[in-house]
Amino acid sequence: MKQAKPVFVCQECGVQRPKWQGKCDDCGAWSSFVEERPFEGAMGGPTTHRYAMPGTQTPGAKKYAEIEASRADRITTGIGEFDRVLGGGVVPGSLVLLGGEPGIGKSTLLLQAAATMARSGARAVYISGEEATGQVRLRASRLGLADAPLQLAAATSVRDILTTLGDSAPPALLVVDSIQTMHSDLIEGAPGTVSQVRASAFELIRYAKENGVALVLVGHVTKDGTIAGPRVLEHMVDVVMSFEGERSHQYRILRALKNRFGAVDEIGVFAMEGQGLAEVPNPSMLFLSGREQPIPGSSVFPALEGTRPVLVEIQALIVRLQSGATPRRAVVGWDSGRLAMLLAVLEARCGLNLSSAEVYLNVAGGYRLADPAADLAVAAALVSAIADKPLPLRSIWFGEVSLSGEIRPVAHAGLRLREAAKLGFDLGHGPDDGTLKTGEMRYSGLSSLPKLVDRIMATA
C-alpha cells in the first residue's frame, strides 16, 4: 500500500503541520508534535473521485419530505441519574463519549449500567482495553453484579472487536473502555496517538450507526480536565459527558456537555460507596451544612443545572490585614474573575473597604458554580462576613449583579423558589420582580446592591 508524505500531528489538539515545530500555534502546547505516516486511502477508500455532471442527483440522497423520522425508543439503563443526563435513556445508534479523571469511577458507572441492562434482558457487551476479563469480573463481583449476563472481553484491536461482533446479533449497548487504548491496523502509530484515536473511533462509530448499537466510549482527560485526543472526536459523537468530583470525596457529578437527544447541562449525582456508585435522589442535601444556628458569612443559593435546581451553601471569610502586605483572594468552586468584579462593585457602589482585606470564598461540598445568578448569594455572604452578622437561617439568595450595582432578573426564578420551599426554606431574596409567583414562600425583592447592604447591616 502506498504511503503518504509524513505529517506532524499535535497530540493535544490534532492539528497537522508539514514540518515539526516546537509550539503548536493552534492550542499553544509545547513539544506536542509527533511524526505520523498515514496510508493513502486508509480512511476514505480510493484516493481518486469521480464527480457527477451538473443536473444529476447524488446517489442515495432523498428529498427532506421523503425521509421518515426515526422513532426508535430509548433504552433505559436502570440507573435513574444516568438516564436523566442522557435525556431519558440511551438511543439506539447513538454515540456517547464519557470523560473523567483517573479513578473517578467511569468504569464502575458503565459496568453497573451495562450489567443492569443485561439483567433486564438487553444484550450488553463491555470491552476493556485496560484490564483483563478476570479483573473486570472481580470488580463486578465486588459490586454485586456477578449474576448479570453481561458479556466481557479484553481487546485493543478494533479489527478483532468488529469481527467478533459481526459473527452474532448486534448488542443493544457496547461499552469501549477506553478509546485511547484501541488500535487500528489501517493507520500507523501507537495506541493513544491522535491518528489512532480518530481511526479507531471512526470504525466503531460506523459499526454502531449501521447496526443501531448504542456505543459508549470512555475517554481520558488531560491535566486541564478536557478530554484527551483530537477535538474532532467530540464533534463525531452525539453526547459528551463529564464525570467530575474529588477522589478524596464521596460524591460524584455526571454532567452533560453536549446532547443531541436531550437537554444540555443536566447533572446526575452519585455517591461512591462500598457497593459501587449509588444514586443521590436529593442532591441539595449534600451541599448544605444542616446546621441549626446561623453563622456569619454563609448564604444558600438555588443553582440551576439543566432542569434540576440544586441548593448549595456559599461560605465567605474576610480577614483584615494590619500590615501593608498584599491581600489574597482565594476562591474554590466559583470564577475568580467574577469575584474580583463583585468586590469592585461592593467597594465602588456600596462604600465597603475591601482593598486591604483578604477574601476567601468557598462553595461547600466541592460543587462548581457557573450560574450568573449566584452573584447575589456571594454578595450576601461577603457582606455578612464583613458585618459579622448572620443571614436569616432558612433563606435563599439569587440574582445577577451588574456593574452599576443593579440586581437583574434571572431565568427560572419560580422553579428555584419551589425547590427551596420543598426543603423547608421560607424566605427568598432576589430581583425586584412584581410578576414572580412565589407560592407559599415569602419573597423579598431587591433592586440594587446598596439595598442589600442596608438590609444586612440593619439586622440584629
Characterization of this structure:
With 460 residues, the protein is α/β, with parallel strands linked by helices. The chain folds into three domains: 1-42; 74-281, P-loop containing nucleotide triphosphate hydrolases (Rossmann fold); 286-457, Ribosomal Protein S5, domain 2. The protein has ten helices and 21 strands. The protein has helices at residues 80-86, 106-119, 133-142, 158-166, 194-211, 232-236, 336-350, 375-387, 413-422, 449-457; strands spanning 7-10, 16-17, 33-36, 95-100, 124-128, 151-154, 173-177, 214-219, 239-244, 251-259, 267-273, 276-279, 298-305, 308-320, 329-332, 357-363, 395-397, 400-401, 407-408, 427-431, 442-446. Strands 6-5-7-8-4-9-10-11-12 form a nine-stranded mixed β-sheet, with helices on both faces. It has a four-stranded mixed β-sheet with strand order 13-14-16-15. A three-stranded antiparallel β-sheet has the order 2-1-3, with no helix packed on it. Strand 13 and strand 14 (308-320) form a beta hairpin. Helix 8 (375-387) runs parallel beside helix 10 (449-457). The chain is globular and about 75 Å long. The model is unreliable at 39-54 (pLDDT under 50).
